[in-house]
Amino acid sequence: MKPDDIISYLELINEEKAHLQKGMNYRVGRNYSVFLMSVRKNAPYADQINHTTGALIYEGHDHPKTKTISDPKSIDQPMTTSSGSWTENGKFFKAATDYKTGLSTKPELVKVYEKIASGVWCYKGFFELVDVEQESDGRRRVFKFHLLPIAKTILQGNIELPCNRIIPTYVKVEVWKRDKGKCQICNSNKNLHYDHVIPFSKGGSSLTSKNIRLLCAKHNLEKSNKIMIFLPWISVGASALTLHRMN
Fold it and tell me: Domain 6-165 adopts which CATH fold?
């Protein structure tokens, strides 16, 4: 799986071999954790993406609603449970603090998925948890976890991603709606991926929906070939655009 691959929730849980019912999942993998995030309108938490640096700020999670707590957003996000054990907030807080203070030489590795639409997720890749803060949101204290993007490879270790390649959420949502969740060459709705029309390596932008489209895995792999694609949302003075895909 590569960053910008689009998957269903079923594919997500098959990938992680776990039913992820919450956004924060400490060490759900053998040597990594998983965050499920959303920066869409009306998302339950105030997650943020810096499209200049690629950094994420992931907000901690609220206390579960109970008979005595009818409005979890009116109380501080919990570090521990009523029995004294760590919540997911607490586990990640400890991991981030251990790294900041030098108790751990490596930051916690976190695999991130971003919600695009109901039942539709986008894989964002691996990140390192490098910092954490507790701050007021105007009503209570919340956790803010800071993560930096990396690519995880087996042979070469962790390699920094080109942050300015990251496609903003608003672009992903717009493209998903415009392309109707289908490959723009064959109309397949399987194994989809966000693709740069003009390659990023050739100066193509990640910041406009005009340069981003949906492709299936087959046609994404064929993008090194010279192909003719009808792009109705790009005004080029012709019905087709010839692209020589290098990357």
Answer: PUA domain-like (2.30.280)
Which of 1, 44, 4, 2 is CA-nearest to residue 176? 4
Over the stretch 56-99, which tens digit does the pLDDT of each residue have?
Answer: 999 999 999 988 899 999 999 999 998 999 999 999 999 999 99
In contact, 205 and 215? CB cutoff 8 Å: no
Alpha carbon distance 221, 240 (integer Å): 20
Token pair in block for residue 19? 């039913």
Residue 148's DSSP bridge partners are 128
Token code pair at residue 53? 């640096």
CA angle 13-14-20, nearest 5°? 15
CATH of 169-244 among 3.40.1800, 1.10.8, 1.10.10, 3.30.450:
3.40.1800
Domain boundaries defined on the chain? 6-165, 169-244
Q: What is the SS3 assignment for 127-157?
A: EEEEEEEEEECCCCEEEEEEEEEEEEECCCE
Could you tell me the pTM of the whole model?
Answer: 0.78
Residue 127, beta-bridge partner list: 110, 149
Q: How far apart are CA 150 and CA 98, in angstroms?
A: 20
Task: Dig out the tokens for 22 from the structure.
Answer: 């919450």
Amino acid at 126: F
Residue 214, C-beta contacts closer than 8 angstroms, at least 6 positions apart: 6, 175, 176, 179, 181, 182, 183, 184, 192, 193, 194, 195
Nearest to 2 by CA among 199, 191, 205, 211: 191
* Residue 244, CB-side half-sphere exposure with 13 Å CA sphere: 1
